[in-house]
Amino acid sequence: MKMSKMFMPTLREVPADAEITSHQLMMRAGMIRKMASGVYNQLPMGIRVFKKIENIVREELEKKGCQEILCSGLIPSELWKESGRWDVMGAEMMRVKDRNDRDFCLGPTHEEVFTDLIRQEITSYKQLPLNLYQIQVKYRDERRPRFGVMRTRTFTMKDAYSFDIDEAGLDKSYQDMYDAYTNIFARCGLDNSPVQADTGAIGGSVSAEFMVKSEVGEDEIVFCSGCDYAANMEKAVSVNTSLDKEEMKELTEIHTPNVHTIEDLEKFFNLPANRFAKTLVYEVDGKTVVVVVRGDREVNETKVANAIGGAVEFELAREEVVRAVTKAGIGFAGPIGVEADYVFIDNEVAEQNNLVIGANKDEYHIQNANYGRDFEGTVGDFRNVTEGDKCTKCGSELEIARGVEVGHIFKLGTKYSETMGANYIDKDGKSKPIVMGCYGIGIERTAAAIIEQHHDENGIIWPLSIAPYHVVVVPVNIKKAEQMEAAEKIYNELQSMGVEVLLDDRDERVGVKFKDSELVGIPMRITVGKDITDGKVEFKLRDAQDKELISLDEIKSKIEAEFVKNNVKLG
Amino acid sequence: MKMSKMFMPTLREVPADAEITSHQLMMRAGMIRKMASGVYNQLPMGIRVFKKIENIVREELEKKGCQEILCSGLIPSELWKESGRWDVMGAEMMRVKDRNDRDFCLGPTHEEVFTDLIRQEITSYKQLPLNLYQIQVKYRDERRPRFGVMRTRTFTMKDAYSFDIDEAGLDKSYQDMYDAYTNIFARCGLDNSPVQADTGAIGGSVSAEFMVKSEVGEDEIVFCSGCDYAANMEKAVSVNTSLDKEEMKELTEIHTPNVHTIEDLEKFFNLPANRFAKTLVYEVDGKTVVVVVRGDREVNETKVANAIGGAVEFELAREEVVRAVTKAGIGFAGPIGVEADYVFIDNEVAEQNNLVIGANKDEYHIQNANYGRDFEGTVGDFRNVTEGDKCTKCGSELEIARGVEVGHIFKLGTKYSETMGANYIDKDGKSKPIVMGCYGIGIERTAAAIIEQHHDENGIIWPLSIAPYHVVVVPVNIKKAEQMEAAEKIYNELQSMGVEVLLDDRDERVGVKFKDSELVGIPMRITVGKDITDGKVEFKLRDAQDKELISLDEIKSKIEAEFVKNNVKLG
């Protein structure tokens, strides 16, 4: 492509609303433009990168025997009502009525559609296993779209669904996808880690997220410093750090005016935060939920939601609800005598004696509260991991990092096949539910994560595997015939080799051209300047400082060597 | 691909709701499955064909310098309000509100979005011309989805938009697209004709439809038997066939009880239909519109709508409206004394003397009515062409055929750039509106049109250029090791040549395998049977009766020759 003809509107300035590097650079490199909050259009430099990622995804999935299909993004509500998710999905799912007032949604995910397709076509174990995928635009009306294509309302997703006769088959399908994802993200040049994750609204038993560590990541990931344990914060567990048991003491009510927070309590009682239990009241889908964790801990809402079988709306209770549940204002809630639909007690609170708790009475706290003797509830793990907690697998310290989720794989089991009647006849003649898995990759978000890991102060540094173009040929002065002719000749020769090449034939200063090619991140640059009279050009890699004067007949081997080095197929 | 692993649910029976051949064969060949009325999912055999068409489109457009982008299908209403089309589009445009109650539509077409993108990035004549395209899912809530993927509510469309500094630039861009389309449809194996078309809701001055002649086509196309004139029925014109002028006679009112239709009138008056004028009353967007054409003619509603500057709802008037306009019941309307917002008189009616018309009085007609003397109205071409009419270009007879519209190209001019302020600064320093064109191809519909033109009683006969697979290798008996081994070897060798090949390794009778490969339309079949002991296999083309016994070392050259013959690149 000749850059004089190309639609590549680069920006010198950082757009005001772009907070993170990948968003800034995608805008500046002319890859994307915003049309509405969380809604982007993809320009030539963008779509070329996204398609490279898509093709890597296709290749790796097809190696595992996955087959591509394409389902409609407009989905009749009946399927979602059958699975029970029409009401569960909340405002994130965009809904639309057709001219006959029939309800549809814009697919945020496609479990129902694939299950419906399969139940109509699969009857026998002989037709299984099967793994079908699509690369398709998804719609999710995020409450707070942000960070460019990291969190948008429409985005391209590869979603795959596996169909097996039993759990052993699912284990193999899941492992195949795990391996395919590992290869995909490696080929995209991403340093990434699969972590255990919660299955959330998709459902199922086991799931893993592929996380790219990044300061701008929206998710917190917990890693063990001593073993391979890794999980996202929603799912992560740690060893309880309950204090040594001591003799139970007598309950004592203490007047604590103007003492509301754990910090206030620490000062008032002159005790560390782990001597207190804090009691939080939530409203969850119309029910009241009380959760008690130690004063130095945070409630893990996902674990709480799972304990009550899932939740759509999960909010801290309004003051009047807190008062109804605890008979006191906010700040004085405690587990003794609360009247809620659910009461959950974190393990550490249950294990520890003589805690200070709210008295459920304005301006009072209670000392020496003990689970079992003074209050009851469902005991379990309802807290977030804290940096320095111990790993439940090996006892080493846990670390917390931020990450960007680029892929997510789930063992769904028979959740959808049972509710929607997707069965097959097994060898023994019996009808059994198909065992399913599902597997997603966010295409644009993967590109953003790559930029987060591959950039410098001048712009993007694309890995060769997904660069929009491999090489840019820059004549220093397009008015000098010998430079322009040599540049065109190199351009044509590289094209015929199958190299994707840009010719910067714009009438601009060479400094502007260099800046643009660095901004958009083209891996190799060939500069045709005055040395062309000696048959020499300058060769420079985007990710290196060195420039090298090489002769014209070295160009081909130089470039081929880069393809070999980066393990990218040429042509 | 091994067929034992492939998700290719073929059907023996013709599905009950599939009326036309392409719909039947797409269903039977396992290419598509219906999810809701006008909403289809694409299975592996389908998506492979659709992607082949997409890639031909890409190649031919990029030869013309078009650049691919991808815009969001979810479009904020503000853009459509700016262009004035938010209200014009009617129920066909699906609308959706986001969680903040903001209006969006699901893009039925993208003029506004592309214009918006361009007005933000283009400032100077130096950045033009530009031609951008996308291949994307469109949403149109058709009143009557039918004929499989011929008329659906979601479909894949390639839409391109050109941006030029002036009309001469647009002429070139339009011609480039005209040529690209001609190449695209030729490469798809389609016998097609570009015809003049009405510009409709898209707007603009000139447009052409690429029509595939087919009995099942939803459109009527008018062709000249003597010259290259071709237009769709909405747009087609013919020479007026007014009768010779005669002396104007005196108006005479005749009692015509129970005479309502033109047929009734022909009998009653013993005159041919062309001696009558028929007067139709319409309600168009709340206005009353009267149209008068000769008794042997039909009203062309598109021409009428264009005469009043466009129409959304265009319906024959209800009886009470007819009575308000004509003072008589249906069947006795005439042009004398009607009171309507618009009165249109077809040229033939204006040119001809002494017509019989309705009297605007129940059970009465009037003889010897003459335009000018007895009634007035806007005179113009408001009728459909009839088979046998004369061509306005050359005088030869016009013929009428049915066709499927696979592409449509428009000269938009400055319709969108003026209303939306997409301007550029010209060489002379003046701000001018960008001159636009737009160009669409329906991907799935093109595939359906190909099937309509390429099939026999056994199934689809894909042109090599868009076949889902090029070759199927069929071992007659998979239990015979020598057949299966030879088949696998051929399969592997062809794959390494870049041939897309199926191995029918299913444990089925060979007749079943042949039936399937003919149904899905694979162009070449290699059957490995008992002759393999002599090193021979059977080679058969899908579109020929002959089978040929060839030796193993002839396979490669046989197949390569087909690629050359069909002008398809291998690998």
TrEMBL record, chains A, B:
GO terms for biological process: prolyl-tRNA aminoacylation. SUPFAM superfamilies: Class II aaRS ABD-related, Class II aaRS and biotin synthetases, YbaK/ProRS associated domain. Its main location: cytoplasm. Keywords: Aminoacyl-tRNA synthetase, ATP-binding, Cytoplasm, Ligase, Nucleotide-binding, Protein biosynthesis. InterPro entries: aa-tRNA-synt_IIb, aa-tRNA-synth_II, aa-tRNA-synth_II/BPL/LPL, Anticodon-bd, Anticodon-bd_dom_sf, Pro-tRNA-ligase_IIa, Pro-tRNA-synth_IIa_bac-type, Pro-tRNA-Synthase_IIa_type1. NCBIfam families: PRK09194.1, proS_fam_II. Homodimer. This is Proline--tRNA ligase. The lineage of its organism: Bacteria, Bacillati, Bacillota, Clostridia, Peptostreptococcales.
